[in-house]
Amino acid sequence: MLKVGDSYGQSFVATDQIIKDIAKVSGDINPIHLDEAYASKSIFGRRIAHGLFCLNAISMILGNHFPGRGTILLFQSFEYKAPVYIGDIITVEVTVTEVMPKGIYLLSIVCQDQNQRKVLTGISKVKWENTT
């Protein structure tokens, strides 16, 4: 059983290959993600990762590590704070903020880049029962 304050963090690199893979799987081929010449003229000045980059990392953590296998996602709400650039190292920190009956947990999510700049914040509500 998890308790309030328990947390887990893991880092991920926004590589060119991962961005191409997200584009392929999602169908989001917006040139802001894939075309350096196009992106250089944007407000970002260079290519940025899809919003799905952080969401995929969060999903991987929830389903595999924290809480872990058997986690069922009930609700998520996120706010994008800053862009993730190709080559950025993003650390995802998941923290239990509330424990509810029937194995329901409210989790705080914070994604930061290698400069400790928050790129995404939000919450996830999950159901998880420790069966190990």
In brief:
The chain is of the alpha+beta class and 132 residues long. The chain has helices at 16-26, 31-34, 36-40, 52-64; strands at 7-13, 72-80, 89-100, 104-112, 118-127.
In terms of DSSP E residues, the strand content is: 35-45%
The stretches of 5 or more residues where confidence is low (pLDDT under 50) are: none
Query: How far apart are the termini?
Result: 11 Å
H/E topology pattern: EHHHHEEEE
For the biggest β-sheet, the strand order reads 1-3-4-5-2
| Number of E strands | 5
Query: Shape from CA axes?
Result: elongated
Q: Total helix count?
A: 4
Oligomer: single chain
Indicate the radius of gyration in whole angstroms. 16 Å
Helical content (DSSP H or I, runs of 4+): 25-40%
Decide which structural class fits the backbone. Answer: alpha+beta
